[in-house]
């Protein structure tokens, strides 16, 4: 497919501009910083629901390394660095979403809100993570078809990637509706469990809302980007990547540095949780409800 990228008026190009090395370098540094802090918080709290987000952080900064490698090849771009940045930057938000899905499931169970949830909590995580994995698999298949070597293959692969993105957007939209319904019902009639804990589970829920809005908006923009095709307006302007993808996804990672989802885990089972961006690690016992005896 390298030959398709050669001429200026070619219907396909790896890039419609020369990728910016300074911008990519900036986001490599920013994502390494937040990912390093997340790795520390993960090791100290052993919050396994945060693992997908940590892996997503690695995908982000490695993806921007791919953009620097591509920039060094200009104007004779090759497939390897292009695919490295393209697929890893597509993968990372889906990994972030997996952490969000699992976090809501922990909060619902810990607050005794099972009856307020449209989908049973034991199925909630499984269903949405399965949608996440399916969407990623479909995008991976699409990427494979895109690299088969002809323009027809590329356009077919684009359509498959769009289908994968559409599945992720639809699942995420349904998830947000589910979270809002649970929250509204809990506000009307708080459960005993929701009052028993000293941890601020509503703060965790608000963080999930903000992160969900950022990822949802980014996914919609990506869906439009692929729908416009390789010569579309979004792919002709590099700044759109940084404004609609890089900055929001970095903001999601920093948000979860501050409001670490170890709170959600400690809310359910007790254990360590992170405060002050990991500067303080605290221990929480499992909540004891009214009528129960302390062990």
Summarize the structure.
With 295 residues, the protein is mainly α. The protein has helices at 21-45, 51-73, 79-110, 121-146, 151-188, 192-196, 201-228, 239-258, 262-269, and strands at residues 271-275, 280-284.
Major sheet strand order: 1-2
How many helix segments? Answer: 9
The share of residues in helices is: 55-70%
Gyration radius (Cα, Å) is: 21 Å
Overall spatial form: globular
Query: What's the total number of strands?
Result: 2
SSE run? HHHHHHHHHEE
**Mean of residue pLDDT?**
86
Query: What is the distance, rounded to the nearest whole angstrom, between the alpha carbons of the first and last residues?
Result: 66 Å
Please give the oligomerization state of what you see: single chain
Percent strand equals under 5%
Assign the structural class, choosing from mainly alpha, mainly beta, alpha/beta, alpha+beta, or little secondary structure: mainly alpha
